Amino acid sequence: MKNHAKTFPIEMMAKILQVSRSSYYLPQEPSKRSLENQEIVKKIKEIHKKSRNTYGSPRIQKVLEKEGVRCSKARVARLMQKSQIRAKMTKAWKRTTKQKQGAIAAPNHLDQNFKVDEPNKAWVSDITYIPTEEGWLYVSISLDLFSRKIIGLGMGNSLETSLVLKTLGQAFIHRTPVAGLMHHSDRGCQYTSGIFKTLMEKHQILLSMSGTGYCYDNAVAESFFHTLKTEHTNFYKYRTREEAMNSIFEYIEIFYNRERIHSTLGYISPVDYESLWEMKMCADS
User: I need a labelling partner for 121 at 20 to 30 A (CA). Which of 70, 143, 193, 235 fits?
Assistant: First the structure.
């Protein structure tokens, strides 16, 4: 009747079809597709909330898939747009460290080869700045390229070399570096300092450094800081450095390493990725 309402009178169609005219005006039962969409949107909201509102449609579609819900990326994107569900994201603001004049940098041994087949083969490191009402909080990380896991974290109010030494010391606690491990960074004065190079030589770690002005040479570390800022720190106004430190530590240890899924890892977390690798190694031995 609805399809022909503009062509034929409602009263005439009701008489021919032998139904009451009032039935045309009754609310229609929702379709099967509509009911499915309602359930999917409910699950999307749960996943989005669990992700701390950071997941967009590609990640949410992968989580739905793992939970046994068959739904295309286009459908998820459409339902999210209709329900006004968006990944929170802010514009990243970045400053970089500078190379000390006259310092000798290591060659770029990594050469943008970011795909690594086992842990402790290549680590990358970088430093960024987080604003607080007390002043800058300097954050340094060591990241294992194999799993994208943050294995070392240093934070403080100074850009002295001690910041990266603290970060590296934490990485040594969490990992057992073997001779030949590659450590890649930019050419910041912290990484070209004599004390840092001596520590690398002591552990037989191969130093690798980005070319001058080539941010893509350390793209994975840069990408992590972009994620940290656009998903987390840019949404806060920290009163003290300690408040910022606690916030960043919680984001990395609780969410980033253990829960946040990574497209480069097949949409699983760094911790889960390493666990699967360890299980495979045990099964093969």
Answer: 193
Query: 151-168, pLDDT tens digit by residue?
Result: 999 999 999 999 999 999
Do 259 and 272 contact (CB within 8 A), yes or no?
no
Whether the CB-CB separation of 128 and 137 falls below 8 Å is answered with no
- Pairwise CA distance, residues 233 & 88, whole Å: 12
pLDDT in tens, 214-233: 778 999 999 999 999 999 99
Q: How far is CA 77 from the centre of its chain?
A: 19
CA 260 to chain centre: 6
Query: Would you mind telling me the total number of residues written for the chain in this entry?
Result: 285
Q: Is the dihedral of CA 151, 170, 156, 188 positive or negative?
A: negative
Question: What gap in Å lies between CA 83 and CA 103, rounded to an integer?
Answer: 55
- Close Cβ partners of 64 (under 8 Å, ≥ 6 residues apart): 40, 43, 44, 47, 71, 76
In angstroms, rounded to a whole number, what is the distance separating the alpha carbons of residues 140 and 129? 9
